[in-house]
Specification:
This protein is an alpha+beta fold. It is about 50% helix and about 15% strand. β2 and β3 form a beta hairpin.
Length: about 400
């Protein structure tokens, strides 16, 4: 029995507060009125939804859990998860925009920035006036983030950044980048630092949006940094601690991906139940066939389990307690539950599930990123294994 976890979750409650219920219901109402009616058309056009993102920003969702001191709404991480679930139930691409902007780009500044940096950048980010992007992944380094080639060299009162980042969410539409670079290649992970870089600076070259399997309206592109001059005061956090801080940022990001996955899976279940009730075969609704019932029951059970894992990790984060393992568990289980749910949803819809008339084929395409982004399922299992061994004294 994991006594350490029992101690850390001793006061956790399964009840949503009034604030939580208000956020869930208001976001659900907004999404059903402004997002759901046009989501199929937007997916087909693959255009970034600037207007809807602005509307979400006006609702306070782009700074939902950041401090009111820097323009945020001041809610907690569970509120963030509830909002992401409601958005992802209809539009996972839009939820990914909110998640990455809030927990990665803005999140890294919030986590390690000094007061002057936060005062300068966060109000525009939390209000949605500007979008943030987090530049970690490179063409040759995905899961092995420490293998990055981007460098930052000191030049008087500036740093000069050179390198290429890829798979950057908000890469071509973002305004403020957090860039990870090697400041001392001889020190390995201890020689990586983070910098705040503005899009309009000379040498910053965002690429064109990538064509992807899913998440079509979430902006993803390459960003090239060609002799970009960065003021020394834009070093984010301590010199050489960029990799350590990155791992903390990813822990928080995985909670968001977990919530997003719950939303996709819930959409798959709700659309399947609707279709199964209406679709008649052999004189009965297919929802009354035991084989179909079992698929939907499995979805429902796994969605509830995934949501509980996500909310547990969020609660631990809000309490300032360790949550690395719990975030990875939530992300791993929720993303793979969404994978199973969306595949079953397409199967329940039969031939119609393979067409773009119905939402479930989009859910299936969008879902796949959940088992890859913020660390693959394989990486999550490595993290969980490491943390379990540590807790149980495996290597002592």
């Amino acid at each position: 029995m994991n006594l350490n976890l029992l101690e850390r979750t001793n006061n956790i409650s399964f009840e949503l507060t009034e604030d939580h219920q208000m956020i869930r219901d208001s976001v659900r109402d907004f999404v059903e009125r402004h997002v759901a009616p046009t989501v199929i058309e937007r997916d087909a056009s693959k255009e970034f939804p600037h207007e809807i993102v602005k509307m979400l920003a006006d609702q306070g969702l782009l700074g939902i859990y950041h401090s009111e001191k820097y323009g945020g709404a001041g809610f907690d991480t569970i509120s963030f998860c509830l909002a992401l679930e409601e958005i992802a139930r209809w539009d996972a691409s839009l939820a990914l925009t909110v998640a990455s902007h809030t927990s990665l780009g803005t999140g890294h500044i919030d986590l390690t920035g000094n007061h002057e940096q936060k005062l300068k950048y966060m109000p525009d980010l939390t209000s949605g006036k500007k979008l943030g992007a987090w530049c970690l992944t490179e063409p040759g380094s995905g899961s092995d983030a420490s293998g990055m080639k981007t460098t930052a060299s000191k030049d008087g009162d500036n740093w000069i950044i050179n390198g290429t980042k890829t798979f950057i969410t908000q890469g071509s539409v973002g305004h403020v980048y957090v860039v990870l670079a090697k400041t001392d290649p001889t020190l390995g992970t201890k020689g990586i630092s983070a910098f705040i870089v503005e899009r309009e600076w000379d040498g910053v070259k965002p690429g064109t949006p990538m064509h992807k399997l899913g998440m079509n309206t979430s902006d993803t592109s390459e960003v090239v940094f060609d002799n970009v001059k960065v003021p020394a005061e834009n070093l984010l956090g301590e010199l050489g601690r960029g990799f350590i801080d990155t791992m903390k940022v990813l822990d928080g990001g995985r909670i968001g991906i977990g919530a997003l996955s719950v939303g996709i899976a819930r959409g798959a279940l709700e659309e399947s139940m609707k279709y199964a009730k209406e679709r008649k075969q052999f004189g009965s609704s297919i929802g009354d066939f035991q084989a179909i019932e079992h698929k939907m029951v499995n979805m429902a059970v796994e969605i509830d389990a995934a949501r509980l894992l996500v909310h547990r990790a969020a609660w631990l984060k809000d309490q300032g307690k360790p949550y690395t393992k719990e975030a990875s568990m939530a992300k791993l289980y929720a993303s793979e539950a969404a994978e199973r749910a969306t595949l079953d949803a397409v199967q329940i819809h039969g031939g119609y599930g393979y067409t773009k008339e119905y939402h479930v084929e989009r859910f299936m395409r969008d879902m796949k990123l959940m088992t890859i982004g913020e660390g693959t399922s394989e990486i999550q299992r490595l993290i969980i294994s490491r943390e379990i061994k540590k807790e149980l004294g495996y290597n002592e």
